[in-house]
Structures are given as C-alpha cells and as structure tokens.
Amino acid sequence: MPVIRASEAVTHEIHGARFVSYATPRTGSKELCAWRGEIPAGTKAPAHTVSREEILHLLAGELLITLDDRTARISSGDTLIINPGATLTIENPADRTAVTWVTTSIGLTAELADGTRITPPWAN
Length: 124
Prior knowledge:
Blueprint: E1 10-14, E2 17-23, E3 32-39, E4 48-50, E5 54-60, E6 62-67, E7 70-75, E8 79-82, E9 87-91, E10 98-105, E11 110-112, E12 117-118
Antiparallel strand pairs: 1-2, 2-3, 3-10, 4-9, 4-11, 5-8, 5-10, 6-7, 6-9, 11-12
C-alpha cells in the first residue's frame, strides 16, 4: 500500500510559489498526480496554458483566478476545474498565503505566453 508521508513529500519552488508533491509515478501513482500549492501573499503567477485537465481546490485563503480571459475570486472551500488548453493566471491579492490541493493526470505540461514549455516535476 503506497503511503506518502508528509516528511517524504518533495518540495519545488517556481514563480514565487511552493509545490509540495505527493502522488506521482515516483511515489507509485499510475494515472494521477496530486500536490499542495502554497501561494504567498502578493504573488502573481504568469499566464500559462495547460495540456491536461486540472482540479484545483482552495484549502485556505483566497485567489484571483483568470481562466481564458474571465476573472473570478475564489475562496477557501471553492473548487476550480481547468480544462485542457485553458489559459490560467493565479494571483493572491490577500495578505496571507493561500493553500491549494491540485490533482491532474500524469504528463501535464504548461506553456507560457512566450512559448516556453514547462514540464513540472510535481506533475510527472
């Protein structure tokens, strides 16, 4: 039975945010990846287009989300469905860190506005 202890999770930092990776192929997952995201106050991640569906659940705080040119504020307990090919920008306008739980399928990539393709290690 694969159990990933909090002490065994792998942490990655990019664009001012922290990603704590739990479920990946390296930890025994065959189809899905899951991680906790920590977005500090004042952080704005660059717009990126995702290759796979993502489910983002906001555990704590609030975020300003722009998804395909539509902007909405989400609060703790809200869930966002990000479809493949959608362009996403996440901003934390609040004065405390927002915490998310994200699930996607293995193989997710993200493309930045300048064409740079990122293969996040926490999603592969």
